[in-house]
Design brief:
Blueprint (H helix, E strand, L loop, with lengths): L2 H13 L6 E4 L14 E2 L5 H9 L4 E4 L6 H6 L7 H4 L2 H6 L5 H9 L11 E6 L9 E6 L1 H14 L14 H13 L3 E3 L3 H6 L7 E6 L3 H13 L1 H7 L1 H12 L1
Length: 248
């Protein structure tokens, strides 16, 4: 069993994921041309919808010219950001911000790839990854993702972890590009777009990390599973408090 296959199984078992950890591929040109032949090509979809299908068990790919979301397309370097978004006026129209300047600054600071750096993106369940992915994205409850963040803190020897977000482009930028460009885990509470366009539940959110971090993260997560995960979920301290209230 490969590291990715084993890790996918253990991730689901330890933190209780009900859907698949997602393997994301950005540099498809760096792989043999046949690597993604089995992936289903989709057109006219958003990147967050690509991830939605991958977490549900599908292997899918999307050419940049056919990515429906203009903000994600700009982040991946597929095409320029439309003026309505670049000026922030588009976000005012959506009711996301009250002032265009706020929206303009959000997009101005958006991490992005250089134009033409990649031509398409692909995603599949981690257990089915045909090669080492660039980024691993996981969608789940805050409590489930908390254990991954704590595992990451362990690998960093206690250094506090920081999330970077504009509450915009949660999957394409926050959970994919920031981990890819910054070589670190990033976490977010989601955004208007991914919550409107996918089945991401109100009780779920998303994080991402470079696939190169998978092995040390799994070592740390297995260690957390020896005691901390079960004890926290058992809520013994809460039950003790409730018992004292009943006796009073």
């Amino acid at each position: 069993m490969s590291l990715m296959n084993h890790a996918a199984d253990r991730l689901k078992e330890i933190i209780g994921l009900e859907t698949e950890p997602i393997a994301v591929f950005l540099g498809l040109s760096n792989q043999p041309s046949s690597t993604f032949d089995s992936f289903r090509s989709v057109a006219g979809q958003r990147y967050c919808q690509l991830l939605m299908q991958a977490r549900r068990g599908e292997s899918v790919r999307l050419v940049g010219d056919e990515l429906a979301c203009p903000a994600a397309a700009a982040a991946f370097g597929f095409r320029p950001l439309p003026e309505a978004l670049a000026t922030g006026k588009g976000l005012v129209g959506f009711g996301i911000v009250a002032e265009a300047e706020t929206g303009r600054r959000m997009f101005e600071a958006m991490p992005r790839l250089q134009t033409g750096a990649i031509t398409e993106v692909a995603a599949c369940p981690l257990s089915l990854a045909p090669a080492t992915p660039d980024v691993i994205v996981i969608e789940g409850t805050p409590e489930q993702l908390m254990w991954l963040l704590l595992a990451d803190l362990n690998t960093a020897h206690g250094q506090r972890r920081q999330g970077n977000t504009a509450v915009l482009q949660a999957t394409c930028v926050d959970a994919t590009l920031i981990p890819f460009l910054g070589r670190r885990m990033n976490f977010t509470l989601g955004c208007y777009g991914c919550r409107e366009a996918t089945d991401l539940a109100p009780t779920e959110t998303v994080l991402g990390f470079p696939a190169s971090d998978l092995e040390p993260l799994m070592v740390a997560l297995e260690n957390l599973n020896l005691k901390a995960v079960g004890r926290s979920r058992a809520k013994a301290t809460l039950h003790h408090l409730n018992g004292k209230k009943e006796q009073a």
